[in-house]
């Protein structure tokens, strides 16, 4: 299941959200630092939370987070966290 916060829906272009979700699903974590990149790689094996960071076409930063149980992926802005 995918959830986009109301704030993210208002500020992000839908195509940018879909592109980020596709990247996240394929293991492209966007602009995370090396520590978070490694944590995501380990999370794939250990079943932990996944975090990706992207910017939309207007350079608005946003997150894509998949919960550890893989039940939901949320798109949100930093202020929604």
Provide a descriptive summary of the structure in words.
It is a single chain. With 81 residues, this protein is of the alpha+beta class. The protein contains three helices and four strands. It has helices spanning 6-11, 14-25, 34-46; strands at 2-4, 50-55, 61-66, 73-76. The radius of gyration is 12 Å and the shape is globular.
Profile the largest sheet.
Answer: 4 strands, mixed
Biggest sheet: strands side by side, in what order?
1-4-3-2
The amount of helix comes to 25-40%
- Inertia-based shape: globular
- Average pLDDT, to the nearest integer? 96
Q: Approximately what portion of the residues adopt beta-strand conformation?
A: 15-25%
Order of helices and strands: EHHHEEE
Number of helical segments with 4 or more residues: 3
Uncertain runs are none
Number of strands: 4
- Output the radius of gyration: 12 Å
Query: What structural class do you assign from the helix and strand content?
Result: alpha+beta
Gap from first CA to last CA:
18 Å
Summarize, please:
This protein is of the alpha+beta class. It is 38% helix and 23% strand.
Give a topology summary.
Layout: E1 2-4, H1 6-11, H2 14-25, H3 34-46, E2 50-55, E3 61-66, E4 73-76
Parallel strand pairs: 1-4
Antiparallel strand pairs: 2-3, 3-4
Which features does this protein show?
81 residues; alpha+beta; 3 helices; globular
